[in-house]
Amino acid sequence: MNMSAVPARVTKTNTVVSFRGIEKSYGAFQAVAALSLDIRQGELVCLLGPSGCGKTTTLRMLAGFVEPSAGEIWLDEDNVTRVPAYRRDVGIVFQNYALFPHMTVAKNVEYGLVNINMPKAARQARIAEVLRRVELQHLADRYPRALSGGQQQRVALARALALQPKVLLLDEPFSNLDAQLRVRLREELSSLIRGLDMTTLFVTHDQEEALTLADRIVVMNKGAVEQIGTPEEIYDSPQTRFVAEFIGTCSLLEGRVDEGGDFLSERGLRFPVARRPGAATAIIRPEYVRHAAEAPGAPVHRAVVETSEYMGAATRLQLRVGDARLLMDGRYAPGRRPRAGDEIDIVIDPTGVRFVTDGN
Ligand SMILES: Nc1ncnc2c1ncn2[C@@H]1O[C@H](COP(=O)(O)OP(=O)(O)O)[C@@H](O)[C@H]1O
Ligand SMILES: [Mg+2]
């Protein structure tokens, strides 16, 4: 292959959004602390964390509705920290859609285009294009009250996309919708956003939504960033106790790694690990605890089933091993599910043991 034929890409920077040491305080209360984050062109980043952790505040600072107490926000090549919201070139979709009830779908989408003085013919073309994108052409003349929740959400999205913003901001856009619709809409949204190569900041408290949608997840807790990583990194290698417990389910075991390479929990559970000696907090996801018969060779632990919770595809067992507690997900044929009080032999898959670095 002739490498000289590959064009040198003229990318000054690939970064569209840059939070640089952003903070927001209300009096003595710090809603957002020391946030630094770059979002690349076309990247979908999720802010994930419990209610009150500072997600919306962060999004509103990027939109220009909330002024940071410290730090800078850059959009493309511009420091927009003091630029008013209406000049920032961001598109926003809120949780409650915020559609104008007295305007048709087309008029709702047109509203922002009139505001930027786009000529009528260009407006009509743009409206048709975005409504086609979100598959609402046929509903252009409907009023919001005659639309389903999911359709209203798509109008809100079309309205934001019509302005061709540099970045799309979505704040819990699916939280008013039922579970099934939420899953469908998030698939639609994902393919739409990726088809447009739209840079997106998505706020949610729903870990499943973040794991399925995001290129990268920013896990927030009490205003601070706990971890930034791909969904795989966040789930598979949580760096803090908070991340381990907030995303997915896990057993947390305090203890230490001895000179022989065994982890020994304070409650007496012992298993081999690949880690240097010293105090440690081990994390074990329930899918890495198995029946001894399925994984010959590993040290076997006798466990008592405390609870057995049927979850459809899997059954979650809460086990007691000596004084230690351990969660396990198993799959069983009908009628074969362990019950509370049963004793079973289990092994801990050493490839599934992780350690968090805080708190020890
Ligand atoms: N205008 C305000 N004045 C005082 N406190 C605020 C204000 N806005 C948000 N907060 C507080 O900041 C924290 C973060 O809020 P928010 O960003 O809305 O959280 P989230 O979106 O993650 O649920 C909350 O404790 C909230 O009460
Ligand atoms: Mg919020």
TrEMBL record:
InterPro entries: AAA+_ATPase, ABC_SmlMolc_Importer, ABC_transporter-like_ATP-bd, ABC_transporter-like_CS, Mo/tungstate-bd_C_term_dom, P-loop_NTPase, Transp-assoc_OB_typ2. SUPFAM superfamilies: MOP-like, P-loop containing nucleoside triphosphate hydrolases. This is ABC transporter ATP-binding protein. The keyword Cell inner membrane does not apply. GO terms for molecular function: ATP binding. Residues 17-247 form the ABC transporter domain. The lineage of its organism: Bacteria, Pseudomonadati, Pseudomonadota, Alphaproteobacteria, Acetobacterales. Keywords: ATP-binding, Nucleotide-binding, Transport. The keyword ATP-binding applies. PROSITE patterns: ABC_TRANSPORTER_1 (PS00211), ABC_TRANSPORTER_2 (PS50893).
